[in-house]
Amino acid sequence: MSAIYNFNAGPAILPAPVLERAQHEMRDYQGRGMSILEMSHRSPEYETINAEAAERLKRLLDIGEEYHVLFLQGGASMQFAMLPLNALPPDTSADYILTGAWAEKAYEEALRVGRARAAASTADNSYRSVPSQADLALDPNAAYVHITSNETIQGVQWHAWPDVGDVPLVADMSSDILSRPLETQRFALIYAGAQKNLGPAGVTIVVIHDAFLRRTSPNLPVMLRYVTHVKNRSLYNTPPVFAVYMVNLVLAWIEEQGGLAAIEERNRRKAATLYQVIDASDSFYRGHAAPEHRSLMNVTFRLPDETLEKRFVAEATAQGMVGLAGHRSVGGIRASIYNAMAQEGCDALAAFMTDFMRRNG
Ligand code: PMP
Predict the structure, then answer these.
(1) Which of 56, 122, 125, 190 is most exposed, with minimal Cβ within 10 Å?
(2) Partners of 208 in beta bridges
């Protein structure tokens, strides 16, 4: 197999050693004569995986008993609804900070459930940045403040968390969870679809503070209550066993890399490799995000015209660099360089970008 560099936004690249381990264990999980896909979710084998994955996540996020880790289904999109259903009582309102397409989606869903306000929006500058503290019109009585830590489509990321006072802070971290050390204690709830930095599609991670959990509504269908899943350690019904098994392997891989500080250092270097080419290109490549708000995970940029963008994607694909077309809603180019992408992949893309510009600039 020749080298493929996978820049897909999600489902996305997974660490090769994780895939190899899963392949190795596929037919015979730990000498049980069957795969993990075929075992009961009530088996001791799966109990161990479920507990290990939650423990690893807690270790990496540096949290203790005050937080609960859940493995749910329905994607981050289900959390857009589950969060307000649980945490937005009828007599209250929630604040949403709009930084791109995913924050907008979360906000729209909250409005379907209850009352919510846009506490700030950077839509006017095409979502090139996150708002400054001074631009936040926060409601001190809000049920929570919701942010999107990394906008996967626009390629914009929070690099300093907003100060929201005593209001619980909630974040959709789907596209940058575990890409850098996190002051988890600042958050009442974090959610993330696994299919970017954590594993395959099919499982969504929710990390919820116990005090926030205690405020949630009991008047919901049982599957929609966070409390149900906390009480049952994510085993109320049949969980996505294979996805959680894979997440557990990815978390072990992150620990082996030296944890989040080491991962962040690698991610910074990878992103800088690409942004340097953009900045040195005399506007042949135009980065979407304002430099101080650039994402370390999704590098978004334009070329002088769409014909060149199409050619860029086609030629890159022919050279084994796949998944570079921007999201269908915004066009352009997007290189998603999650944790599992090696520096080598960014070096290859940077070399291609420089060469492409020389030939077409
Ligand atoms: N939030 C963000 C930041 C995302 O990037 C995505 C998916 N790309 C979603 C939410 C939606 O996730 P899902 O497809 O798991 O519902």
Answers:
(1) 125
(2) 68, 189
Token digits of residue 222: 């049982």
Give residue-wise pLDDT tens across range 165-181.
Answer: 999 999 999 999 999 99
**Catalytic site residue 253?**
no
Q: Could you tell me the distance, in angstroms and rounded to a whole number, from the CA of residue 34 to the centre of ligand 1?
A: 33
Query: Rounded to the nearest whole angstrom, what is the distance from the C-alpha of residue 327 to the centroid of ligand 1?
Result: 12
Instruction: Walk across the sheet containing 204-209 and list its strands.
Output: 67-72, 204-209, 189-193, 169-172, 145-148, 93-98, 115-121
- How does pLDDT run across 18-61, given as a tens digit for each residue? 999 999 999 999 999 999 999 999 999 999 999 999 999 999 99
Query: 249 φ, ψ to 5°?
Result: -65, -40
Question: Which residue out of 78, 175, 195, 300 has the highest number of ligand 1 atoms within 8 Å of its CB and is therefore the one to mutate?
Answer: 175
User: What is the DSSP annotation of 184-252?
Assistant: GGG-SEEEEESTTTTSSTT-EEEEEEHHHHTTS-S-S-GGG-HHHHHHTTT-SS---HHHHHHHHHHHH
28 is catalytic: no
Residue among 95, 102, 158, 176 flagged as catalytic: 102
Give the domains, in start order, of the chain with CATH numbers. 17-256 (3.40.640.10), 259-360 (3.90.1150.10)
Q: Which residues line ligand 1 (CB under 6 A)?
A: 10, 75-77, 102, 148, 152, 172, 174-175, 193
Rounded to whole angstroms, how far apart are CA atoms 180 and 266? 10
Evaluate if pTM is beyond 0.70: yes
Please tell me the distance between residue 280's alpha carbon and the centre of ligand 1 in angstroms.
32
d(CA 95, CA 139): 7
Active site residue 172: yes
